[in-house]
């Protein structure tokens, strides 16, 4: 679904990514792990086309998307849920959904219904303004917005960040349903969530891919987890 080869990204004068290699197989959940500042968010944002000052190859369904601007990347069918949730505080949940739609046809409205079944909290908060939602509801809305259009690939940046445990649970349950129809690339520091959802992992350290494999490998390898994640 997605292939990243030797990605280098500069932000201003800084050489942030210095060789990220990553593959996301169809119908999988692939998790990007690494310490704070390792380059996980920059990797996802590079795929979305936020940094024109990059080199390397980014292939989505076999087609190069490197250096395309974010709206073009999104239109190819890549949904993006940023770390800080891109919802409009002054618009209601309903309006936030409508703004995200590329078309208001039956298929899109059916997808919206499916998303509201997946996140009943959003149905309940339908007429509430984005700014008045809880952190968990904002995260759900951000995910729903990214998925309301035809989206073969979803990039999600730390969906559990700052959420109460009950909300983490709800988001994780929803992701488990979403994975049945959507390939996912997930950045996640919460190792419980990462290890329960992930089929494969990539470890990024100092802007480079340093390790990769099936998630089971990492679950079984305490030394590796300690070395790169600082957790036992
Ligand atoms: N706009 C920017 N200007 C300068 N440096 C930046 C900028 N954005 C990110 N960086 C630096 O790039 C490095 C990678 O940041 P990135 O956000 O990708 O890390 P991360 O692995 O996602 O970590 P975190 O879990 O803390 O979000 C960090 O050292 C960060 O300080």
UniProtKB/TrEMBL annotation:
Keyword Transmembrane helix: no
Domain ABC transporter: 2-231
The keyword Nucleotide-binding is annotated on this UniProt entry: yes
Record's keyword terms, sorted: Amino-acid transport, ATP-binding, Nucleotide-binding, Transport
SUPFAM superfamilies: P-loop containing nucleoside triphosphate hydrolases
InterPro entries, sorted: AAA+_ATPase, ABC_transporter-like_ATP-bd, ABC_transporter-like_CS, BCAA_Transport_ATP-bd_LivF, P-loop_NTPase
Superkingdom to which the source organism belongs: Bacteria
GO molecular function: ATP binding
Family from the record: Belongs to the ABC transporter superfamily.
Protein name listed in UniProt: Branched-chain amino acid transport system ATP-binding protein
Lineage: Bacteria, Bacillati, Bacillota, Bacilli, Bacillales
